[in-house]
Design brief:
alpha/beta, TIM Barrel, eight-stranded parallel β-sheet, 8 strands
Amino acid sequence: MRNNINYKLDKSILRDFPKIEFHRHLEGSFALDKLSEIVLRNNLEDFKDFETFKKKYQFPLNSKPDFLAFISKFQINLFKSFEDISSITYHSIKKLKEDGIFYIELRFAPHYFARQYNFDPIEVTKLIIKNGNEAAKDIGIHLRYLITFSRRTQTSDEILNLYNQIDSLNLKEIIGIDLAGDEFNFPPKLFVPAFDEIYKLNRHKITIHAGEVTSSNQVWTAIKDLHASRIGHGTSVIHDKKLQKYLIKKKIALEQCITSNSLTGSWRNGEKNHPLGRLYRKGVPVTINSDDPTIQDSDLTDEYLKVIRYFGFTIEDLIKINITALKCSFLPKNEKEILEEEYLQNIES
């Protein structure tokens, strides 16, 4: 593949390029055709055609940045049964094949699916893992999971309680946890007790949404006090040279998301000036991610096109970033090495 792709780095070719992804929310990646069927079946609304449906559930790419409007697309009343959850999981993960995914650590929040209709979040977790695994097997990709907790809707005690229940399931496919949500009103320090306990158990690695809409101080807190070994977004790292050196030294990767940061307004200086390119040139471990591709009306391949157009990335840069991503994955060391060898074979084929 390497020789062919050097000739023309366009979307049709890049779609098949093997990709590693760490920062993609299942809740922002639903298969829209299947979602429309569920919405109709549950009598949530009536729409005249699929395009009308899409307009309601996607944030227009050409819109002005609007964080609240973006977040409003995440609706919690869509899934009224376990059948709904199973179906949307299976069909959404099957679509990952269309984006050239080789390995993904897909994150989901059990409470997102559970709280509207009072489902058991443990049963939700088991359902998502079961159906996700089936889809991954059917399309031939490597899939692991991160459990997302919410700053806004869960306290530190509630997070720890749910974590302990999920941990007791001993699902080997779950390899990490994530903290997401409002950084301003719910800073990392509020969740130190839970993450201290989780870290001591040494069962799962930790990634934290930090420095997306706040200063690099929250990235420091996420690493030092919440024990993060990866950072979600971390755009403010570009303003902190000391932190850049620390990330390089400790091999702590940033999960960067160009399109998402632009649409939410968390990065307001234009996609062409997004920190990803500069941080990569400085040697900071960065990874390329889609975040919420369905809501954004984009995909991971679009992110690859942007780093090529905006930052002059070559095929060698893309390969290097993905190898770095594998090394910064939450997999055990032996599995990383096996996947790295398989990945390079895929590139050369």
